[in-house]
Amino acid sequence: MRADNRLLDIPVRPFEMTQRRRENQALNIHEYREGATTLRSRPLALFVELTQNCNLRCPMCRFGEKYDPALNMDEKVFDRLAEELFPDAHLVDVRGWGESTMLAGFGDLVLRALEHRVRVRVVTNGQINRPAVWDTLMRGQGIVTVSCDAASPELFDKLRAGGTLERLERTCASLVEARDRHGVPRDHVNFNVVSSMDNLDELADIVRLAARLDISPVVIHPLVAHVDDPSHLRQDLGRTQEAYARAAEAGREHGVVVQLGAAPDPSLALPEMVRKPACMHPWSYAYVRYDGAVGFCDHLIGSDEYTLGSLQHHTFEEIWNGEKWQALRRAHLSGHIPDAFAPCRYTYAQRYTDFEYLVHPDRAEGIVSSATHHDVVRSRDPRLIPAVPFAGDDADSTGQVLVPTRMLSDSLRALSVPDQS
Ligand SMILES: C[S@@+](CC[C@H](N)C(=O)[O-])C[C@H]1O[C@@H](n2cnc3c(N)ncnc32)[C@H](O)[C@@H]1O
Ligand code: SF4
After folding, report:
1. Can you give the pLDDT at residue 390?
2. Which of 52, 159, 402 to mutate to test the pocket of ligand 1 (most atoms within 8 A of CB)?
3. HSE-up (13 A, CA, CB side) for residue 151
4. Residue 286 forms beta bridges with which residues?
């Protein structure tokens, strides 16, 4: 967008470890380790959902909603968060259950976040190339994660309905140019891959694509869907294991780190590496939805049932230390996760460190990748180690949940959507 070009004239400074941030981090990690349920510290990582609108209709995620301006965050909410929470936060991730780059004012919001000298991160489908915004983000030493689930144009069309691989490649080229222009570490532009039965045969090719684009790491997360879904990796664990091994091998061959955000299945996990209670998210993360609802985890976006209060009715402090959030922290300490937070059980079955080390440095020990482990998957008897559903069968799959918990129907998969970007 041409209007973005004026961003290029505005000075940007990178993350600053202020005394306030240093103290908040030390206190937060201390309170987590001590098992405190009422916290004096504030979140270290803040996820700000700028919009729930999206330009694509990926069958694993969307149900064909129309663009609705009411699903964009009111700038007053953004400013309130910036003023109240950015000075203590280390990481501000400006995405949610939608596509932030669609917003005309995306560059301005990035700039406003960078004024607080936080580390800004965005996850994008890479369909809208905004070189001046990438330049601004990289001058601020930000992080851009591009979601890429296919290496062939045909499969990309299917899994990222409405998008094209060609556009993604163009965006990646701009991002990498900006990264290198400003001497930003290589891993600040990386790939997120959702693995499923649909793209197992292309995982190694996605790694080769990343190598060609000079992008690393490639972080693979398994598709979250109903266990009976034909795309769920449980359908063929042998093929899954081979595909992950081939991807890791391709990574080593081409100088790309292949990281597993989670094991493809509990029976293919490295048990000693799987996250142990208590997960640090309920202590160190906060997620603010476009409408001011507050949740505690970047994996549980888009759903009302996992929010703990709303900034429309309460202060952040009232929610952060409210009874619901305290009960959640207690549940994680005891390991007895109530049904209401069933997805957290999935974490303890198969999640590894994703990027938690950015705010809890010792979490780097929990990384599983082609650089840390020769065998990134290890097979155990799946009859003894069952799949752990992400959410109960009764969860509403008609548009409230990020991740559909019922079958992704063939008709949805075949959905053909006009190009909207
Ligand atoms: C909801 S998207 C929002 C950001 C942006 N629109 C994008 O696609 O990158 C955030 C991440 O969730 C992933 N995702 C969507 N549906 C998923 C599912 N059913 N299982 C696992 N990950 C999923 C996407 O691939 C993406 O990497
Ligand atoms: S995964 Fe991202 S790009 Fe695809 S529909 Fe969901 S929010 Fe949109």
Report:
1. 75
2. 402
3. 19
4. 46
- Sign of the torsion formed by the C-alpha atoms of 256, 300, 379 and 271: positive
pLDDT of residue 2: 77
Side-by-side strand order, sheet with 285-288:
258-260, 218-222, 189-195, 143-147, 119-124, 91-93, 45-48, 285-288, 293-295, 307-310
206: closest CA among 245, 125, 152?
Answer: 152
Tokens of 320: 């952060």
Ligand 2 in reach of 71 Cβ (< 6 A): no
Question: What is the model's pLDDT at position 306?
Answer: 82
The residues near 304 (Cβ < 8 Å, ≥ 6 apart) are: 293, 400
Residue 21 has pLDDT above 70, yes or no: yes
How far, in Å, CA of 347 to CA of 335, rounded? Answer: 11
Cβ–ligand 2 distance for 343 under 6 Å, the answer no
pLDDT of 399 > 60? The answer is no
311-328 pLDDT tens trace: 999 999 999 999 999 999
What does the block give as tokens for 390?
Answer: 């992400």
* Distance, CA of 361 to chain centre: 18
Cα distances from 266 to residues 27, 237, 262, 273, in angstroms, run 33, 11, 9, 11
Ligand in closest contact with the CA of 65: 2
Question: What is the share, in percent, of the chain residues with pLDDT greater than 70?
Answer: 91
Average pLDDT over residues 87-96: 96
Q: Which two tokens stand for residue 255?
A: 């100088």
Out of 6-10, 166-170, 189-193, 412-416, least confident range: 412-416
Answer whether 297 contacts ligand 2 (Cβ < 6 A): no
Ligand 1 near 60 CB (within 6 A): yes
